[in-house]
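Entry 12.
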Amino acid sequence: MAVNEGWRKGALAVMALAASAAAAMAQQSPKPIIGAGNEPIEIVSDKLEVREKENVAVFTGNVQLVQGKLTLRTVRMTVHYTGQPQGASAGTGTGATEVERIEAEGKVYLKSGEQVATGDQGFFDMKSDTMVLTGKEVVLSESGNVVKGCKLTMRMSSGQSEVDSCKGAGTGGRVIMLLQPKSGN
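Predicted 3D structure (tokens):
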């Protein structure tokens, strides 16, 4: 049974997540959030739709991506990839398709190690190595320390993170941060 070329390209795009960098939650050094190391990536969803002509793969319904200590959960995840596999020769069908960006919609939950970030939408741009989470309330937490706003932008190549406030959302238009003192034990 021959495999449809469109499904093969879509599957390659999904597998290319392993070779792509999106963002990182680790504070010590910028690392890619998706594709770090040699650990396999598992994506589970209720439905997968590949639109070959648009170079898009859409996962819907209880989407979960797991790679090592990284977990991404959302309602819908759209993967935009290049049409030509990276490093492929014309007609050979070899190489990995390069992921350009990933969009996550609906209750985005991202956990890496002890850090957790949540929001309503997520955008991961591989070229600029940037992750953006937005929503009515975006929360970044680790070990009891919490930062709240409406937009979290992480630029992994520079290690820079930025949280924007929720203007007119009951916070006085300000970013809220709660820091816990370290335990003496």
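Annotation: Strands lie at 42-44, 47-51, 56-67, 70-81, 99-112, 115-125, 130-142, 145-155, 160-164, 176-178. Residues 58 and 85 are 18 Å apart (CA to CA).
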